[in-house]
Amino acid sequence: MRAPAGQMIDPFGRTVSYLRISVTDRCDFRCVYCMAEDMTFLPKQDLLTLEELDRLATAFVEKGVRKLRLTGGEPLGRRNIMHLIRSLSRHLGTGALEELTITTNGSQLERFAAELADCGVRRINVSLDTLDPDKFKQITRWGNLDKVMAGIRAAQAAGIRVKLNAVALKGFNEDEIPEMLRWAHGENIDLTLIETMPLGEIDGDRTDQYLPLSAVRAQLAERFTLADIPYATGGPARYVEVKETGGRLGFITPLTHNFCESCNRVRLTCTGTLYMCLGQEDAADLRAPLRASEGNELLSNAIDEAIGRKPKGHDFIIDRETRKPAVSRHMSVTGG
Ligand code: SAM
Ligand code: SF4
Predict the structure, then answer these.
(1) Domain spans of the chain?
(2) What is the pLDDT of residue 203?
(3) For ligand 2, is residue 58 a contact (CB within 6 Å)?
(4) What DSSP character marks residue 262?
(5) Is any ligand 1 atom within 6 A of the Cβ of residue 102?
(6) How far, in Å, from the CA of 301 to the mean position of ligand 1?
(7) Is the Cβ atom of 108 under 6 angstroms away from ligand 2?
(8) Is the dihedral of CA 270, 272, 276, 277 positive or negative?
(9) What is the pLDDT of residues 316-329, one digit of tens each?
(10) What is the CATH number of domain 18-334?
(11) Tens digits of per-residue pLDDT, 71-100?
C-alpha cells in the first residue's frame, strides 16, 4: 500500500515525520562511551556535499518530514554548516517544516548561537555529562567545559531554549545527577538522562559503564518528588516533573522496548545511508539514487522502499559473553 502524497507510513502504521541527519562522523571530542581515542573516520570524499544533504533533506520534507535534527559527530564542526542550516530554514518559512534543530556538544556554540537563532532554530540539545571541569576533561578526553558553558549562555542569550542530555555512567556521574538537575532547572534548562547504548567498539568495556536509569530514578525519588507527565515528543524519552524545581526531567532507556511502537523517526548518515532503526543494521543507500539523476523520482522511490522496511523494534543487548556491541557502528555515524 502506498502512503498518501506528502506522508510516509511504515508497515506498522507509524507515520514517519522526523528525520535526523548526521552531517559528519567527525568530532572535536572523544567521549569515552562514544568513540575510541584513535578513531578512523570516513574519507572526506565519501561525504555528501552540503548541497546534496540539502537536496536529500528537502526530498524528505516534501514527503512529510516535519522535524529535522542535525547531529553527528559534531554538526557545528562541519565546514560551512551554517550554509546548510540557513538553506534548510526556508522550509520553516513556508511552513513545510515545524522544527529545525541540532544536537551539539556545545564546543562551538558561542560562535554560532546568534546565527542559529536567526535561522529559526528555537530549541537545541546540548550534551553535557558533568559540571566538574576535571571530570568533563576525563569523559570527553578533548573537551573544555568553559567553552561549552559559554556556548549554553550564548544560546540562551539568543533566545534558544536549551535541553541538556547527560549519559548516566556508573561510578562516574551517578552521584552528581541531583546537582546537575538543580543547576539545569535553576537555569530554566530541561535535563534528559540517557542510558548507555551498545553502539560501536570503544576502548573500555561497556558493561562497566551501564547504569540502569531505573536505579537512578529510584535514587532521585528519595530526594525529589517526581510526577509522571504525559509530555511526549514521539521519541524514546519518558518525562517527569520535578516538584521541587518545577523543571522537566526525561529518561531515555533505549534498551527497553517501551518506545518502538510510537517511533516516528529515521536517520540519515553523512554518506547518504538511511537507517530505519537506531538499533538495527538494516539500511538503504540513498546516495546512488540521489546521484543517478537530477530529478527526485529515483530518490523518492528509494525512500518509499526503505520506509516499507522499517522494522517493528530494535535488538539492543550488551552481550555479556562476547562483550561485543550489538550494533557495530558508532553513535557518531547515526547521530543518536
Ligand atoms: N556531538 C554531538 C553531541 O555530543 O551532542 C551530537 C552527536 S552525539 C553522538 C549525540 C548523543 O549521543 C550525545 O548526547 C551523546 O552523549 C550520545 N551518545 C553517544 N554515544 C552513546 C552511547 N553509546 N550510548 C548512549 N548515548 C550515546
Ligand atoms: Fe563527539 Fe558527541 Fe560522540 Fe562526544 S558524544 S565524541 S561530542 S559525537
Answers:
(1) 18-334
(2) 82
(3) no
(4) G
(5) no
(6) 31
(7) no
(8) negative
(9) 554 445 555 556 67
(10) 3.20.20.70
(11) 999 999 999 999 999 999 999 999 999 999
